[in-house]
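Sequence in, structure out. First:
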Amino acid sequence: MSGSSSTSGMSDTTTTGRQWMRRRPRARWTDAPAPPAPRKCTDDVVVDCALYEDGVRQATLPLREAMKSARERPGSFVWIGLYQPDVEHIAEVADAFGLHPLAVEDAVKAHQRPKLEQYGDTLFLVLKTIVFVEHEKLTATTDVVDTGEILLFVGPDFVVAVRHGSAPGLGRVRKALEGRPDVLAQGPAAVMHAIADQVVDDYLDVADAVELDVEQLEADVFSPGHGDDAERVYQLKRELIEFKRAVQPMARPLQRLAEEPQPSISPEIARYLRDVADHLTQVRERLSGYSELVDGLLAANLSQLAVQQNVDMRRISAGAAILAIPTMIAGFYGMNFEHMPELRWMFGYPLMLGVTAALSFTAYRVFRRVGWL
């Protein structure tokens, strides 16, 4: 019995083992987990992080140390520049300065309209940037402008600038302010003004470049022998609309900063912000003029195409009328009547040719005189 039981146990074990081996799935390369997405290192996100005291840059510090120093040293503030941060990178800054979760979410996701929000003693300003895309000639697929975003958190002792997309770097703004300690000594509001001023100045530069495209397109539309420029005109109109979408909504936030009292904005900075708002008004007026001109170019191009089609139809009609003369005369003599005296006349054929040529030439001169040929 024991031998039988032992044999049976071994048999069951072997069978179970074989079944386990048969049921075990075969490893395939398609079952391998996808590699994790590469994470951006802090150096790629934090562009610059510096502590300023009395308008003078004290040191370039690591992120945590800079935030701690700004809290511990009265009269100083930290200016942090971030480029396309994710939630993990900005969470540390948000916790240190008590940034509102809604504003933090906007700073991470981007794609916001220009706006100004106030959360306690922190201002949250969204700016749209415009970059001119260099090109030799405007075509039906040419990109003229490219948009980006700068989102600013401005508090009593900190400025956090978050850039997204094609927004230009703020290194030139930082360098210019560091060369003017008297301005930088006015605190984070001075940094906010300098960034907004640079963004609007870039608008003016892009508007100058767009104006050249408008003038070139205008010359092409009204040049002799031009083709159908409707697609080029429409493409420029679309780019102008994108430009206007970035510029138009900025008027209200700048107006609020310049006119509504803000605890963190001194009267001197408010006057500078009014100047930025004036420059923005200039850009808006220029864009309105460009849009009206482009609309006129589109209408003029369509009108010229209609006129050209009318001219072509006149030429076709004049040619058909001239060809109808010999066709009509040849039709008379192709009817095979028996009693047609001129058929047996010696000069009948030359006379028919002469009359046909004379009538055709007369019709040609008439059409030339009235401008149909």
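Second:
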Amino acid sequence: MKKSFYLLGSVLVIALIGLALFSGCSRSSGTSGGSAVNSNTTQTQSKSNTQTTQTQQSTSSSVGKSNGGTKATVGDGVQTVTTTLDRGYAPITVQTGIPVKWTITAKDGDLSGCNNKMVIKSYGVEKQLSVGENVVEFTPNKAGTINYSCWMGMVGSTITVVDDINQ
């Protein structure tokens, strides 16, 4: 009897792990394969994404693009950066010592059981994402590359922190 409970428990655990892995979470990175589209990108995966990206380019021309992804804009003691969730996360570049207000726009259908919660361990940030605009705030304290990911650690990207955003 005891062995059958252990067997049943093992089967349930395996089933739950399988469900979590196949519920829309796939290992990807915002820096490869075009899985993450930021507000300034011109790469697309389909015709409908092309139209969306062109609209985003015309409405967010003040946001710069760097090797580290979308570059923050500094004003009034705060740096702002806006990205769009497209199944994966986009890389961003921010400056040390200035509070960040990061807006992540998620459309219906872009969120999954995996990417709906973003974790930036280095800053103690956990953000449950929903359809619409999601604001993430933190203050980077030193230059370097910060990794962030979904709550399962499978979908991720980077935050590049620089000493001077204008260089």
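Remark: The mean pLDDT is 74.
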